[in-house]
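Hey,
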Amino acid sequence: MKRNKIKEILESGKSGYQATVAGWVRTFRNNQFIALNDGSSISTFQVVIDYENMDPEIVKKINTGASIKAEGEIIESMGKGQSVEMKATQITILGEADPDKYPLQPKKHSLEFLREIAHLRFRTNTFSAIFRIRHQMAFAIHKFFNDKGFVYLHTPIITSSDAEGAGEMFRVTTMEIGDPPRDEAGQIDTTKDFFGKETNLTVSGQLEAELAAMALSEVYTFGPTFRAENSNTSRHLAEFWMVEPEVAFNNLDDNMDLAEELLKYVINYIMENGKDDLAFLETRLLNEEKQKPQIERSAMPLTEKLKFCADNEFVRLTYTEAIQILKNSKPNKKKKFKYIIEDWGADLQSEHERYLVEKHFKKPVILVDYPKDIKAFYMRMNDDNKTVSAMDILFPGIGEIIGGSQREERLDVLKSRMAEMDIPEEEMHWYLDTRKFGSCVHAGFGLGFERLVLFITGMSNIRDVIPFPRYPGNAKF
């Protein structure tokens, strides 16, 4: 008989028919009640066995973590929590789990411990909920752009350009590490490498997306990006996923509108389609925060926070206005900030971004018109020659979740900025060509996907919202 998904059985609520389920045992009580989960739902499904008439060798193997198949009749449940259950006539052990060795026994495990066994943490309620929501979010992003007529573009993972100009890249090479070929001057000869030049893992698909936008008008990328940044924080990963739309004929205002619309769309989609998993994660967060001092707890429950962000207009203000607010703030005056704001031109830190969102405005914030000296070469210069048409979207509990800008479409200004930042023209000739031939106003942004997953799930560490996190000192699994 074809396998029935537990989610479909529970959602239909029908009884009086034969079914087959398969999954992993969460608990086995009184040699009679199996709580079975197949990953299709946060809910477990109760399978009731006839212990007296069941092969004792099979009963012995029904342990937490074991994989089984159960066949029998779906009947109305007399117990609380679900409307139907299975009265099993046959149990097949598909894969045993030794209870003395299986690390996920039915008790509370710390998130730190679960990171050490990331290959098994999918089987917990917390992580099955997170990764179902992550999937739904990815689907919602593709649906959002598809419905708007965008073209999904696969940009290269191996690249020779540094889109951010930060230089924090992972090098890709096939040369011998201990004895690479060298030129006459004794320098490493990268012409002998696989690609004939120095290459790296991409930090962004933006520059390539701009090229496509100059012909297809509306494109987006959604793929892995890499930063060799030695950041051991709860908000940074060395490998993460980025969503990067680029739109021809859009200015900064259009860019802000698109970004706000995307964020609200994804949040609303999850609130509509991930109710059970969200409810579980909200309860989990409430229980976790009971152990924290009041000042460290979330201002509102998870679903209320999501609804608040989806229903309210984002505050829009300039970097200059933000600096004034921060300079005059109590934490700054009392030197409570780790990084004191003294002058215009300071690069805002997470503590500043969160103060604006969580304390001052109590709403998501879009900051615009940053000083040119703290932003990338490709951002459009404003008329004051001091600031660029950049934008960052700041979210509660996260800080920056989106960074973007109107791109510099004027060839002479772009070349001037590249010279200022020591970016060689010959290496970027392909990028400059789009400004030589049919240039136009255009804009785009990058959304850190894991940061949005972090926000929607209410988790506190970004290493818990990607299946196998990569960070300094860790590349397990």
